[in-house]
């Protein structure tokens, strides 16, 4: 086993380029090689157990090796592993499309499958753009985004993103967009009027550019990669009103917030909002297989109908669009939601999480604690009074993550914001353990000279 591990580590160092990872220096750290999953735990090659505190990058919903999901994928393997949706169909994709339309916000009746969050967003952007072309309004071609927004890493998704660290390098490749300030109350200079300032600027931009705006795109209720930044109550509903008043489409990116993460099946449901387009991925298969979906209204879908010679077709698709194995997993996951009454069972977990987070708040280096359902961001600061951040070079968030591993949990930071987003199937005791480990890791990672 030791020899096998040594060889795997060498091959990793020689060949594997890890995402969002500065490879210089990474090779000096112990390589964590995961070989097994069970419930909310992951196991490494030495058999050490870790709580999966970020749901394997926010996608695992019911836990690892859930029998119903395993069985659904295995059963589909006995039928067909893959068949294209280009001019054909298969039962899992048809059934999953129907089920998604049933549980989505009212009006989202059409389902276009793709592969991941970025591709769901790319499809939505192209749909919004072509919708206006097909309606005879080609001048409506611009998009309005929020600062701090993150919608994926393909170029269209990057163009409507608002995180300069991730996106600035590619600026010459991107189409121009409009940007409105997103609520970030902890860092707002005028926190008393933060909500109104942010909304007012968005309203002004939409009104001024209504003739050229195709759509507004946002992450509803909670901005994820920005650092788990919650939007004030009523913000989303007002954005829907503004876009409706000015004839602009609304794209809701629910890749991270969908499938129970905020306490409702979809975050839009907290404020009774039905967008024109909604992007789904991550938890759509329970975290088992890559799959994404872009949901559209009949109004949007109808703009693409016409005689073949009009070429109003949506010329877009992927080889593995609506893959049968992934669709079967998606159906099984939604059945678990219903059978286990997952959403109804989140209340106690969210309340416990709120109490545990309140106990973390007094820590001298915890600047802000942000929660929406089972999505949490804990922003670490060097000086709590002035809100001065730690020096970037110190990599405080990374130090906390490494400390958490030694204590038995896998976390991932967004800079110096520690994210908690465990599988929804986590028990109360496991959730307590995750919070205890997180607080202890924060203590270790913020100590002078730690790391």
Quickly describe the structure.
By secondary structure, this protein is of the alpha/beta class.
Euclidean distance between termini CA atoms: 28 Å
Give the biggest beta sheet.
7 strands, mixed
**CATH architecture annotation name of the largest domain:** 3-Layer(aba) Sandwich
Mean pLDDT level: 96
Helix content: 25-40%
User: Could you give me the name of the CATH homologous superfamily of the largest domain?
Assistant: Type I PLP-dependent aspartate aminotransferase-like (Major domain)
Alpha carbon gyration radius: 22 Å
Read across the widest sheet, the strand sequence of neighbours is 4-12-11-10-7-5-6
Indicate the structural class.
alpha/beta
> What name is given to the CATH topology of the largest domain?
Aspartate Aminotransferase, domain 2
Report the total helices: 15
- Strand-residue fraction? 15-25%
- Provide the domain count: 2
Q: Give the beta-strand count.
A: 17
Task: Give unreliable regions as ranges.
Answer: none
Shape: globular
The first-level CATH class of the largest domain is given as Alpha Beta
Oligomer: single chain
Descriptive notes:
The protein is an alpha/beta fold and 451 residues long. The chain has 15 helices and 17 strands. The strands form four sheets. A seven-stranded mixed sheet has the order 4-12-11-10-7-5-6, with helices on both faces. It has a four-stranded mixed sheet with strand order 1-2-3-15. The protein has a four-stranded antiparallel sheet with strand order 13-14-17-16, with helices on one face. A hairpin with a 4-residue loop joins strand 2 (41-44) and strand 3.
